[in-house]
Structures are given as structure tokens and as C-alpha cells.
Amino acid sequence: MIHVSLEGIVKTEEDQKILIHQIQNVCERERIPFEIENHQGEIYLCPCGVIDVKIENYFAVLKTNTALAGPGYHVAVVELFDKIMNEEGVYLSMDDECDYLEDHDFERIKQMYFIPYMSQLMRQFSNMKEEDQATYGWDERSYLPVAKENTVITPYGYISGKQAGSYSIDTACQNFYIWNEIEKDAYFYRNSALVSLWCDCLFENSLYDEKSLNVSKSICDALEKAHELDPLCALPVDEYQQLCKLLHRKNKIFDVDQYPKGAVGYHREFVFYVYGNWFLYFQGNALQSFDGHTMVLKLKDEDEDIMTLKVTGYKNHEKMDFAYRYLNSVDALDSIDFENEKIHVKGVLHQLNDADSTLYLQAQCLKENELLMINVECRDMTSYKKALLTLENIQHIEMEKTVQDVRI
Question: Of all helices (H) and strands (E), which one includes residue 22?
Fold first, then answer.
């Protein structure tokens, strides 16, 4: 990893307010998005380029790992930190292992730090065994794509060991680093859009959620900017045109090579949504939200709810049992009772007496001292079968996943 941090002492509540104001001033002046609340937050320079902000125990630290986004991101962070340091307020000091401010030599930090890092990373990927599965840079996501053999899940999409072994170092840097040069060139905008397409875009369901809608718009903006800077830069044209059609947006990109080949986007397929130690297999284009301790996954079609799945978990230090009062089988259309990899699942299906005759599935998943309550409203039997697929493929994994993480 390649880290940059900015640190300082904040002795009083007033010092904390001054520091937050200091950070806000610079970010607003530089038009950099940020969120800081309750003495912690994030500064967003680009996809995969997020600066964590934390103030606690009289100590403030802003830090980021620049290896994931690239050398251009590293320079942008150092220059931002330098501006925050020079803003009137709390005294701060920077720790940059590349020492970029010593000589402002961009080629030096690329050759000494980022190219060797990329070489080592691709070598690790290419040395994977056929049965190996791994993740890279996927710590803070609320879902996990389905693993594939000899393949790494990354914010840039699936990368197979064989694919990594075929890359030249220049190709790997150009396609894997978002910010490979100091300036924001066509590849910066193309790669930013690709990361958002792979990780965040809900495609058809983008229209039903403001955050997802903004993601789709920003992807189109980035791809149009990439095309403007370099008309020969290969772009994910199929996905761009699909989003333009959904957004009723004018298509501005024609006669451009398609990159990459094949469908882009983890949300196009089924994924595992993470709830504590539970992994729920469900359609990737679901609208996800949290209501207290309950995670809600909703599928829509032309503004009509197709299926709503609500998940609430309970944990006890002693062995738990099913809450049988919620598993009333009287007048049930169907009942479920099976065990899979030490997860015991029970459930019943009812039909609600409403205008749509909604199917209502109540299910519980039990493993040792953890109980998961799942309530699903289904529009029809097709939706119910998808709910059964979720129950049949649910997994429980203790969240210590360093064994399968290939990060350097």
C-alpha cells in the first residue's frame, strides 16, 4: 500500500471546530465533495480515491491509500493536504512516504512506487491457482459480487489470473489506475466511469433512487468528457447508450471502439448483500436501504414494487432458537424447512387480503447464536421463487476475510 496522511493535535472542542472549518474552506474552494459529521467523514477526489477524516481523543487524522487510484491521485492528495496545512487554523503535519513535495517529480514517484506496486499486484493475480478466489480493494462495500475461480473481485471488475498475466505494465497501469497522470485526461474520465459502472450503477432501477440516478448521470458526463478529450479512446459505448435511453438523454458518442468487451456491472447479476455475518443472495439491481436495524432490498418495475425483502438480525451469546410465533402455518400456501451448511431455515407463505393479493413470506435463518428474520412481499409466484433462491443460497461467514484478500 502507498499511504498519505495529515495529522494534528486538537486540544479543545473549539480546536475541532476550527479544523473542520479549515478543511471545509479548502474543499469548497477547490470544489471537492466532502461529508464531515460528528467529527468524522470523507473527502471524495475520485472513485476509489476517498480520504478518511477522523477526530477523536484530541487527535485528528486525514488519511488515504493512494495505490488503488494511482499516482495522479497521490499528487492530488498531497497538494490538497498542503493547502489544508497552509490554511489558517490548526497546525498539521503531513506524512507522505513518496516525499512528493520535496521535488515535485511525478516521474520519480511513478517509477519508484506505483509501477513496482502494479507489477507486484499483477504478479500476485497471475500466480493464483485455478481454484483460488480473492478480493482487492473491496472492504467498505455493502455487497459482494459472486466469486469466480482464478478471479479477483476488484472495483474495476473481475480480473482473472490469466488476464493479469497477459498485461504489459503500461496496459495494467492505464486500465487499472483511475488517475495515471497528473492531469485528468481521457483515461481518468473513462476509468472513473468504468468503476462507477461496475460498482454502483443500477441500470434500469437507477430511475427509482436519487443517488443511483445521480450515479448514472455522472457516468454519462464522464464518458462524454473522455470522448471530448480523446475521440479515439475506447469506451463502454453499449452501457453509455443504454443509460442515455433510460435518462432520455441525447447520445453524444458514436463510432467509438467498445471497451471492455462484454457486459459491465456487478449489479447486472445476482450478488451477496452483506448484513453482519450474513450474506444474502439477491438481484444486484435492488434498491438498498436501512430502516433502523433492518436492511430493505426492493425491486421495482416501471415504478411498481415487484418484491420487497426486509432483513433484521438478532444475536445472543447463548444458543438461539426460532421465534415460532412468527412461523404460524395456519392457512399457509407453502412451508419451508431445510438445513444448508449448518444454517437451518424455516418459513411460511401466506396471501395477504389486499387489493393485489400480495404473497407474503415469513422466514427465519438460524446458525448457532445468530437469528435472521426475513420478511418478503412478493407480487407473484415468480417473485416468490426468487425469494426461495435467496433462502437456498444464504451464507454465514465470520467477517475476518484477510485470508482471501490479496492486498499488498
Answer: helix 13-30
Residue 311 φ then ψ, to 5°? -125, 130
Task: Find the domain containing 221 and state its range.
Answer: 108-247
- Kindly state whether residues 150 and 96 are assigned to the same domain: no
CA atoms within 13 A on the CB side of 59: 6
How many C-beta atoms lie closer than 10 Å to residue 38's C-beta? 6
Alpha-carbon span 265 to 260, nearest angstrom: 11
d(CA 234, CA 303): 34
360 sits in which H/E element = strand 359-367
What sign does the CA torsion over 342, 307, 326, 295 have? positive
CA–CA separation, 131 vs 338, rounded Å? 29
Residue 265 lies in a domain: no
pLDDT averaged over the chain? 91
CA–CA dist 49, 34 (Å, integer) = 12
pLDDT(125) > 70:
yes
Measured CA to CA, the distance from residue 227 to residue 68 in angstroms comes to: 24
What nine digits make up the cell of 179?
A: 488517475
Q: Provide the whole-model pTM.
A: 0.89
Alpha-carbon torsion 57, 62, 64, 66, what sign? negative
Q: What is the pLDDT of residue 272?
A: 96
C-beta neighbour count of 2 within 10 angstroms: 20
At 32 the three-state DSSP class reads coil
Residue 150 · residue 129 · CB < 8 Å? yes
The owner of cell 476517498 is 50
pLDDT surpasses 80 at 399: no
Residue that is last in its domain, among 102, 122, 143: 102
C-alpha cell at 175: 486500465
Count of C-beta atoms within a 10 Å radius of residue 146: 15
Q: Which of 102, 132, 166 delimits the end of a domain? A: 102
Q: How far apart are CA 55 and CA 8, in angstroms?
A: 9
Instruction: Report yes or no: 143 and 34 within 8 Å, Cβ to Cβ.
Output: no
pLDDT in tens, 243-291: 999 999 999 998 899 988 778 999 999 999 999 999 999 999 999 999 8
